[in-house]
Amino acid sequence: MSHLEGRTLIEVRGEVLRKLGESTDIPTDHRIWGEAEIDGYLREGFKKFAFATHLFWDMRHLDDLPAVGNHVGVWEREFFGPDEEVLDLRTHSNEWERDWVGGAIPSHCTSIFERDNHLPEGIDRCPAVYEFPEELYSLERVMWDYRKIEMVRSPQLRQLDPYFTTDRGEVVGYMVDQDGARRLRKYRVPSSRADHYESIGRFGVVRASAPDSDGEVGDGTSVFTMHIDQWGIVVGGVLDQAPTIFGCFDPFATGAGVTLEVAELIALEEFDECEVIWRYGILKRLPGYFPAGEQMRGFVKKVSRDDHNTRIEFYRRPGEPNSQNDVFDLPEHMLRAIKHYALHKAFGRKGVGQDLRLSAHYKMRFQSVAVRTKTRAEMAQQSKVRRMGGPGPGPIGSRHPNAHSRHARLPRNLEE
Amino acid sequence: MATLAELESDVRQALDESASDPAVFTSADIRRAINEGDQSLSEVSEWYRVTTPFPLWANRTYYDLRGICSQPVLSVRGIHAPTPARWLRGTSPRELDLGVSGRSGFASSLDWGRVSGSPNLFFMRSVWWLGVYAQASADGEIVHLDHTALPPKMREDYDSPLYPEEFHVGVFHYAMYDLLVDDKEVSKALEHWEEYVLIETALKEYADAQGLMDRVIQFGEESPL
C-alpha cells in the first residue's frame, strides 16, 4: 500500500481489536472492548499526537474584504441546505450599533454579489476583527501584503494610538487580546479591499450534467464551474505542460453544430497567458497558490490573493475520521503510534482485560514516536538569529558579578 | 544476510509454529511482524538515506513532501540544484522575516514570499512542507532532495533488510515481541522487546556515526584541519 493511501478507521480499529485479542468471531456482547470505545481512543490519540508534534501546518486568508453575513445565530448553520453557503455571522451592519451589541463582528451585506458589485453604498468598509478558523489551535505567523506583521499588546496600543479601533490604513500589526478568545483584530482597520476573484455559479463538482443556454440542468456533459472566494471544487483536468491551469473545459452543444466553452475564469489577469488543457479530472493546482485546507488533499479549495491581504499561518487540529471509511491522514509509522495510544488506553481501563504493564509499555511507545517526530520538525526549523557584533564577549567587566567594581577584569585570554 | 524467508523460518521455529498447518500465526502474520520490526528499526535510526528528484514550479514556495517522495520522508538533509550547481542552504522563516539568512550569507527581502529567481535557501514548515526561497521563476528545474526515509517493505522471500547483517537480529526480536503480545505471553514478549531496544540503539549509533572524522591528538597547536 502506498504511504500516501490513508488507512480507514475501520481498518485501524480492526488491527487494534486484533491486538487486544478481540476477534470478529466473538459475539459483540461478549467482547471486552467495543468498537465505539476503540474509535474514541483512536481519535483521541490522533489529536494528542497532532498537538504534541505540531504536525498539521496550514494557512488561511482573513480577507480584507467587506464581511458578507447571511445568518444571525450560530444555531442557523445546521439548517442551511446542501446548495447554500454558510457565510459570516451577521449581527450588525453599522458601527453605531456596536454599543447595543456586545463583542460582535459587523457584516455589511448578505450576498457575495453585493460585495462584488460594491453595493450598498459604503460597502467598501472592511472589518478589523475576525474569528479564527475552528481548527486552529496555535497561531504561528500573520502576514500582510507578503510581509510578516507583529503582534501588538492592546494596553500598549491604547497608549500609542487611542483610536486604534477605528483608524484605517494599511495593516501593520494585529492583536489577539482585545476582542475575546479566538479573535484577531487587525491594526489598522483595512482601508481598502484586497484584490479578489469574483465568483460565478455554484460551488461543487458537476460531473454528469450541464446547464443549457436557458440555465436548465441537462444530461451527459461535464461542466466547468468555478466558485472562487469560497470553498469550492473545480471540475478540472490534468497538467499537460507548464505553465498551465489544470482545467477541464468540455464543450456542450447549444444548437445545431454549435459548441460553446462553458467555463470562464473571471478577473484572473495573471492566468491570461496560461494554457487551459482539455482533459478530464479535477483541478489540482493553480500556479502560485497554496492548497490550504488540506482535508481534501489534491483539490484547489479557496483561492485568495496575498496582495494587500491578510494571511495567517497556523497549526490546526487534524480532520478526525468519523465514519467507517474516513481515513487517518498519516504515514504508517505515525499511525502505529496512534494504535499504540489506543492500546495504552484500552489496557489501562479498569475492569476485565486491564493490563497495566502493557498499558505503560504502549504509552511509552506512543510518546517516543511523538517526541521523535517533534524533534525532527524542530531540527528542520532551528536557526540562530544573527546579531550585530556576533556572539562575542559583552562589554568590559560585564561577565564579572561585580561589574562595576574597580577590581573587575577581563579573563586573561581576552586581554590584549 | 538474513532474508525474509530465513527470518520467517527463525520466528516460526522460535514460536514452535508449523509452516504447513499453523496453529496460531500464519505466514502473513509473521511477515507483517517482521516488516513492522524492520520499519521500526529504520524509523528510529534513520539509516536509510536517499536522494529524490522533483521539479520546482514557478511562483511556488511550498512543496508537499508527501507527494514528492515515494517513501515516507523522515528528515530533510539537503537539496541540490544542478543549474547553476549549488546546494540550497537551510534557513527558517524567522531568519527570512528578519531579512537575513544566517549561515548562507544571502540576504532576503522582507516580502520574501513573492521574490522569484533562482532558489538558494530552503526551510521546513512542520514535517511535510518544504519551502524554498526564492520561488522558481519558471517551471521544471529538477532539484534533488537528500533525505532520510523509511525503506520499502520486504515482499519477496529473497528480500533482506538493507542495513548490516549484525542488526538483522533486531527484526527477529521485534517480530517475536509483537507476536507474543498477540498470544498473551506478555513477559516473554517484553523480554524480546528489551533485546530489540538494544539492537535499535546500536543501529542508531551506527547510523549517526557515519561520516565522523577521526580526531588525532597532537602535541602543540591544534591543526587548522
Characterization of the model:
The complex is a heterodimer of chains A (416) and B (225). Helix content of chain A is 20%, strand content 15%. Mean pLDDT of chain A is 68; it is low at 199-212, 215-268, 275-285, 294-301 and 383-416. Chain A is of the alpha/beta class. Chain A is elongated and about 70 Å long. In chain A, 32% of the residues are buried. In chain A, helix 1 (9-19) packs across helix 5 and helix 2 (35-53) crosses helix 5. Chain A has helices at residues 9-19, 35-53, 112-116, 154-160, 332-348, 356-381, and strands at residues 7-8, 57-61, 69-71, 88-89, 129-131, 136-144, 147-151, 168-169, 173-175, 183-187, 189-190, 244-245, 251-255, 258-261, 275-276, 310-316, 327-328. Chain B has six helices and nine strands; from the N terminus they run ααββαββαβββββαα. The relative contact order of chain B is 0.21. By secondary structure, chain B is of the alpha+beta class. Chains A and B meet through helix 5 and helix 6 of A and helix 2, strand 3, helix 4, strand 6 and helix 6 of B.
Task: Indicate the topology.
The complex is a heterodimer of chains A (416) and B (225).
Chain A: E1 7-8, H1 9-19, H2 35-53, E2 57-61, E3 69-71, E4 88-89, H3 112-116, E5 129-131, E6 136-144, E7 147-151, H4 154-160, E8 168-169, E9 173-175, E10 183-187, E11 189-190, E12 244-245, E13 251-255, E14 258-261, E15 275-276, E16 310-316, E17 327-328, H5 332-348, H6 356-381
Parallel strand pairs in A: 3-4, 7-9, 8-11, 12-15
Antiparallel strand pairs in A: 1-17, 2-16, 5-10, 6-7, 6-16, 9-10, 13-14
Helix pairs in contact in A: 1-2, 1-5, 2-5, 5-6
Chain B: H1 4-14, H2 27-45, E1 49-55, E2 62-64, H3 65-68, E3 73-81, E4 86-90, H4 93-98, E5 116-117, E6 121-125, E7 129-133, E8 135-136, E9 142-149, H5 168-182, H6 186-208
Parallel strand pairs in B: 4-6, 5-8
Antiparallel strand pairs in B: 1-9, 2-7, 3-4, 3-9, 6-7
Helix pairs in contact in B: 1-2, 1-5, 2-5, 5-6
